[in-house]
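To whoever is on call:

I kicked off a structure prediction for a single chain this morning and the downstream step that reads the tokens threw a length-mismatch warning. I double-checked the sequence; it's 79 residues and nothing unusual in it as far as I can see. Pasting both halves so you can look.
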Amino acid sequence: MIEAIERAYAISFEKAEAEQLVTMGQLFDLVKSKIGEQSAKTTTDDALWAGLVKHAHDAGADPRRVVDRNTTFFSRNAE
């Protein structure tokens, strides 16, 4: 999922950054900070969120469950 997001938004994550991510909210904040001001003008928060949720579903997230800022990536991190 991380590699797909890097390609989709023409950004890259440091290994340490990716390892620190636990929730979709953290991923959203990190991607938003990396796409920069220019891209932020053409990519709304809603569009960015929708894109990240699509990547989560493509990577195997249960499409019947709502993905929100607190959704975790891995079952070992689930509350």
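Update from on-call: the warning came from a stale cache, not from the record. Cleared it. Sanity check on the structure: The longest helix spans residues 24-42.
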